[in-house]
Design goal:
- The protein is α+β, with helices and mostly antiparallel strands.
- Among the domains are: about 160 residues, Ubiquitin-like (UB roll) (Roll), CATH 3.10.20.30; about 100 residues, 2-Layer Sandwich (Enolase-like, domain 1), CATH 3.30.390.50.
- It has 16 helices and 20 strands.
- The strands form five sheets. It has a five-stranded mixed sheet. It has a five-stranded antiparallel sheet with strand order 10-11-16-12-13. The protein has a four-stranded mixed sheet with strand order 6-7-9-8, with helices on one face.
- β10 and β11 form a beta hairpin.
- α14 runs antiparallel to α15 and α15 runs antiparallel to α16.
- The radius of gyration is 23 Å and the shape is globular.
- It starts with 6 loop residues before the first strand and ends in an 11-residue tail after the last helix.
- The structure holds flavin-adenine dinucleotide and FE2/S2 (inorganic) cluster (2 copies).
- The site of one FE2/S2 (inorganic) cluster has 12 residues, from loops.
Length: about 475
């Protein structure tokens, strides 16, 4: 791992090399390549103006995903193909079918957001997903338009029904493969042993997974990452394995990959996770990265706490398992030692009769950080609650279980009287603050109301699934 090995990738079908690993993909596209069709709006992953499509080969098949170029770092595109809006044009700069349809449907006015929408729609069209209103809304929730209004844009997407999944940009990557990138300031080990070795040797280096948090440094704050260790190329961190009692998810598995599994195993969790960031964010972001931020409003912690998940941490000294309840040790503090890496997250499966529900309240339904998030799990035997887990985000300095409230539920039936007692106990368990998102009083009211909704709506109320 000593020889320099530059980042190699395809840009609109042309091969490129760079050593500028922590430059943002957007800066590379616009400033180095002068491909200015891709726009910069917010520079923090929120508006989708910078959306491009990144293609990688998975099991021999190309997988196209929309990502935000503003918070994607060049090191992350090694061995991948990047397509910008310019790369969609056909011979003689003929418009791509998505562009034609968007124009015919009057889906563009000033046009600033349009390249981003085109790229999101292109990825959607190539994904093979059913063209339903719900899927279209999900695919476009990370793209903001200030002047056209969304109806014509959604109409464009609905018009994509049934197009052949043809596209030259989706062709195999022409022999390009993940290389053992090793350039100043960026290391991308290919084995767990190398990752742990690097972690031990470079205690000041930053572990990078999807960079949906870390990318804000180079992008919004113009603060480059000086020394990075990319954890995403290590096979063990990319595994998803399932037994009869649990699912283990590698720390570098993206939300997009984990979502179908979690959706199948835990009622309401799919709906909840589809509100974590946007599709662009979920195509890059990981649960490992969410835990790594140690944010009290990270959306993974409440469901992991309610499920009694275990985190596997590894260092050169070996690996150990930490209960998620012991992982958060204080505001933005975790049980991670300086040479630790999160390798997997183990989530026990529900058993027959378990009641489970995740909820999130945020100012905007899609792509917004939680004001309050709650996940609740009850184990019921012979009509009585024998185990209760009530886990909240946004209600204390760390994600937290409400243990006094849990005790109010255990031993009797899950009914209105028990919930009233649990809601009354919440202020003893939780200490929310006033901040720009909410007042403490509002948060406490919401925390109680989510518990009441759990009782009224039940674990998987189809009618309420899509309710903001
Ligand atoms: C527009 C936008 C919307 C967002 N919306 C939400 C939201 O709704 N809910 C929410 O919870 N979050 C949200 N986020 C935050 C972010 O997407 C998540 O926290 C995400 O899970 C971070 O994962 P990542 O892989 O991108 O982490 P990175 O940015 O790569 O890393 C984040 C932190 O984790 C550390 N880390 C990464 N991998 C490991 C590892 N294996 N071991 C140890 N440490 C590690 C890094 O060193 C870093 O400190 C949003 C972000 C953006 C930009
Ligand atoms: S510029 Fe807004 S998401 Fe990238
Ligand atoms: S067309 Fe102007 S911002 Fe969308």
């Amino acid at each position: 791992m000593t020889a320099e090995h530059r980042i190699r990738f395809l840009l609109n079908g042309q091969s490129r090399e760079t050593a500028a690993a922590s430059t943002t993909l957007l800066d590379f596209i616009r400033e180095t390549e002068r491909l200015t069709g891709t726009k910069e709006g917010c520079a923090e992953g929120d508006c989708g103006a910078c959306t491009v499509v990144v293609t990688r080969v998975v099991n021999g098949e190309p997988v196209l995903e929309a990502v935000n170029a503003c918070i994607t770092l060049m090191g992350q595109v090694d061995g991948r193909a990047v397509t910008t809006v310019e790369g969609l044009l056909g011979p003689g700069r003929a418009a791509h079918p998505v562009q034609r349809l968007l124009a015919e449907t009057d889906g563009t006015q000033c046009g600033f957001c349009t390249p981003g929408f085109v790229m999101s729609l292109h990825a959607f069209a190539q994904s093979g997903e059913a063209v339903t209103v719900e899927n279209v809304h999900e695919a476009l929730a990370g793209n903001l338009c200030r002047c056209t209004g969304y109806r014509p844009i959604v109409d464009t997407a609905l018009g994509l029904a049934g197009p052949a999944r043809e596209d030259a940009t989706a062709s195999p990557l022409g022999g390009l493969a993940d290389s053992d990138v090793n350039v100043p300031g960026w290391h991308a080990p290919r084995t767990l042993a190398d990752l742990l070795q690097l972690r031990a040797e470079r205690p000041a280096a930053v572990l990078v997974a999807g960079a949906t948090d870390l990318g804000l440094g180079p992008s919004r704050d113009r603060a480059p990452i000086v020394d990075a260790i990319d954890v995403t190329r290590v096979p063990e961190l990319n595994d998803i394995t399932e037994t009869s009692t649990a699912i283990e998810i590698g720390a570098a598995v993206t939300y997009a990959r984990a979502l179908p599994h979690l959706d199948r195993l835990y009622p309401t969790l799919g709906t909840y996770l589809r509100r974590l960031g946007s599709r662009q964010i979920r195509n890059s972001g990981t649960i490992g990265g969410n835990l790594g931020t140690a944010s009290p409003i990270g959306d993974s912690a409440p469901f992991l706490l309610a499920l009694d998940a275990e985190i596997e941490l590894a260092s050169r000294a070996g690996s150990r398992h930490v209960a998620i309840a012991d992982f958060f040790t204080g505001y933005r503090k975790t049980a991670l030692k300086p040479d630790d890496v999160i390798t997997t997250i183990r989530l026990p499966k529900l058993v027959d009769g378990d009641l489970f529900r995740c909820d999130k309240v945020s100012k905007r339904y899609d792509q917004d950080i939680s004001n309050v998030a709650g996940t609740f799990r009850l184990r019921i035997e012979d009509g009585r609650v024998v185990e209760a887990r009530l886990a909240y985000g946004g209600m204390a300095a760390t994600p937290k279980r409400a243990m006094a409230a849990e005790a109010c539920l255990v031993g009797g039936p899950f009914d209105a009287a028990a919930v009233d007692a649990a809601v009354a106990a919440l202020p003893g368990d939780l200490a929310p603050i006033d901040d720009m998102r909410s007042t403490a009083a509002y948060r406490m009211a919401v925390a109680g109301n989510l518990l009441r909704r759990f009782l009224i709506a039940g674990p998987a109320p189809a009618g309420l699934e899509a309710m903001p």
